[in-house]
Amino acid sequence: MRAAEPVDQDHRRAGALEVREVEGAAEVDRPQAHGGILCDVPGQAKGGVSVPRPLTGGLPADDKLDGDGGAKRLVDTQTQIRCASCGSSNRADRRFCAECGTRLGRLCASCGSPAAAGEKFCGSCGASLIAPSRAEQSPAASTPPHLAEKILGSRRALEGERKQVTVLFADVKGSMELAESVDPEDWYRIMDRFFAILADGVHRFEGTVNQYTGDGIMALFGAPLAHEDHAQRACWAALHLGDELRRYSDDVKRARGLGFAVRMGLNSGEVVVGKIGDDLRMDYTAQGHVVGLAQRMEQLADPGRAYLTEHTAALVSGYFRLRDLGMFAVKGVREPVRVHELEGVGALRTRLEVTARVRGLSRFVGREAEMARLDAALGRTIAGSGEVVGVVGEPGVGKSRLCGEFVERCRTRGVAVYQGHGVAHGKLVPFLPMLELFRNYYGITEQDGERTAREKVAGRLLLLDDAFRETLPLVFDFLGISDPDRPAPRMDPEARQCRLHGIVKRVIEARSRFETAVILLEDLHWFDAGSEAFVDALVDATAGTRMLTVLNFRPEYQAAWMQRPDYRQLAV
């Protein structure tokens, strides 16, 4: 058993709130003053508004031209304005950016009066002209409108409710030392972009940023928006943030020479939702060590890693790859805590798969009529008359179990099966089920390197028809497989989508000449728009082939292909 490192007191300074540990849990208070370095320096405002920054160098003063009409005049070469749109430096007398044409003048956000370069407060009304960082904004300012509408629309029902949530903490390791090594304004910009990445990643999976902690955030999944899969969403967010922040850390390293590393911690448990204000600030009461343990996991994590408690691990086991790190003595907790590292996406995709792996499935009975109809559709497909079958039913009636039993029968008969699944947060992740389907078709696993993945894709396609060689760069690009020798063609999104749909149709037609196959796509009601467009292409390609496409979804789901003559619906 290992001891966790002492709690870093610097972690408790908050941008908009302050986190204070009380007997192992976290107590939330408003700070007396915002004393962090991020609020002490001017920043770069949004929407083309610029903040002056003293710069050295430049052309001699007598060689400057007026930005309005070209007349020569003397200007101060030491004060320049940095364009908020493209980042280029411009002379103080410029009204428009010489690089991108963005207007450089500023207007007071409070009264609309013009402000000269270098002014920090409006001369007309006294309002600050410096835009707040993300850490200083209210939750409403950084929450996407569609999420804010959901929260405010249901807040009366939420207040006072007990909610199962997953808490995520993320922060920069050694932020105080890093801040001391760079110019304050540069650090401001680095952190403001960091906060933007964190907020966007949390909102992507319908979590909410509850606190900015000076050098990181605290986020909730499952409150105020209730989600049964809150732990999965938090883990998806952590993996997504890990990828985004690694790229950002590389950028910071190249530009500033800083070792910018982020660590994350997650824990799951119960909270009682309190008052939700118009600005989306939420009061809540954490039960036990819910918040405190999440923060301890973050403080315990190595840079670039995400650590989970056993409470969160139990909720996501099978869906994600976890590494058991053993038992740790954690400050404020009497008993040792088992800690897991989040390593990646797991092999299991559905609750049915997880149940089968953990507890096993009960005997399948009572669906003989439905199974007979699916078997009949398969028989017609083998004869060369491919069909589309929609299995429709309310949640929990057994759609996935029926489809799962059917495809197992197909496999025992030697029929190839390729699968993709929708997930509850799927509308927020472009092409998630289709990427799963295509990677399944090409036999690509999580362990495959890019070279192996390229070989599998090329081998499968070229075996069908050598004419697919010219499509390889586009297919590699869609699957997220880099190919330094064959870069993807540059084209607009609509043209790219049309070409990909055409490739899908050609593959199905070519494949059906050699074998019968079944495509199973589950939970279409959770598909994003891009994946739905691929479903349209699959359905169009099925007619006259030896491809059976089985889709399941809830009754409220509707699509144009349901009017096709080769579509059959099976209600369960």
Question: TL;DR?
Answer:
The chain has 572 residues and is an alpha/beta fold. Helices cover 34% and strands 21% of the residues. The strands form five sheets. Strands 1, 9, 10, 11, 12, 13, 14, 15 and 16 form a nine-stranded mixed beta sheet that branches.
Question: Please, could you describe this protein's structure?
Answer:
- The chain has three domains: 2-38 and 134-302, Alpha-Beta Plaits (2-Layer Sandwich), CATH 3.30.70; 45-130, no CATH class; 361-571, Rossmann fold.
- With 572 residues, it is α/β, with parallel strands linked by helices.
- The protein has helices at 139-142, 145-153, 155-158, 175-180, 184-204, 230-256, 290-300, 310-316, 351-358, 368-382, 399-412, 432-442, 450-464, 472-478, 493-512, 529-542; strands spanning 2-3, 18-22, 25-29, 52-54, 79-82, 89-91, 106-107, 114-115, 162-172, 208-212, 216-221, 262-276, 282-286, 306-309, 320-329, 337-345, 388-392, 416-421, 517-522, 547-553, 567-571.
- The chain contains 16 helices and 21 strands.
- Residues 5-79, 128-133 and 352-361 have low confidence and may be disordered.
